């Protein structure tokens, strides 16, 4: 991702957070949706593809290019996606989970794009991918992580300072 685009998205997310536009995230979907702070305590704001601003459209253009590449080279059949801004306040976390719903197997790939500048070891908020061997990803600015939504169990460790990202799923 282009560094200037990421910086502008970072600033936009901070403005949204400061304006109180983020809401407590939930787990589940449709009829089994709930907010459960013992499992997940971040705050989010969904990015509506039909009502996005020019900055978000640039992000979606990059996602479209990546989806086209995956479809062309890996025959993934990606047709759409969903993304949200995420903010993990100090003390926030997301316990170990998969990114597929029990009643909807549409999510193929999970994507996390980190927007944290000057992030240092000890700030917490690491993404832990539970593979044969645990893989720990520090949420540093510009790092993008892509993984299989149905096969990779993962968690977000407790953040010791605000941790921000754009998170989404290719479907």
TrEMBL record:
GO terms for biological process, alphabetical: cellular response to hypoxia
InterPro entries given in the database record: HIF_prolyl_hydroxylases (IPR051559), Pro_4_hyd_alph (IPR006620), Pro_4_hyd_alph_FE2OG_OXY (IPR044862)
Keyword entries, A-Z: Dioxygenase, Oxidoreductase, Vitamin C
Occurrences of domain Prolyl 4-hydroxylase alpha subunit (ranges): 4-171
Keyword field contains tRNA processing: no
One Pfam match: 2OG-FeII_Oxy_3
Name this protein carries in UniProt: 2OG-Fe(II) oxygenase
Organism per entry: Luteibaculum oceani
Lineage, uppermost ranks: Bacteria, Pseudomonadati, Bacteroidota, Flavobacteriia, Flavobacteriales
């Amino acid at each position: 991702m282009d560094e200037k685009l990421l910086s502008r998205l970072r600033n936009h997310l901070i403005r949204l957070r400061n304006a109180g536009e983020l809401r407590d995230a939930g787990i589940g979907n449709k009829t089994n949706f709930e907010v459960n702070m013992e499992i997940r305590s971040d705050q989010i704001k969904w990015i509506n593809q039909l009502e996005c601003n020019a900055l978000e459209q640039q992000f979606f253009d990059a996602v479209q290019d990546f989806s086209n590449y995956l479809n062309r080279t890996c025959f993934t059949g990606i047709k759409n996606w969903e993304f949200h801004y995420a903010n993990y306040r100090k003390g926030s976390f997301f316990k170990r989970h998969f990114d597929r719903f029990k009643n909807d197997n549409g999510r193929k790939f999970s994507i996390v794009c980190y927007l944290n500048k000057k992030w240092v070891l000890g700030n917490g908020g690491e993404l832990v991918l539970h593979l044969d061997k645990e893989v720990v990803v520090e949420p540093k600015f510009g790092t993008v992580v892509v993984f299989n939504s149905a096969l990779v169990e993962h968690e977000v460790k407790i953040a010791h300072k605000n941790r921000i990202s754009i998170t989404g799923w290719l479907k």
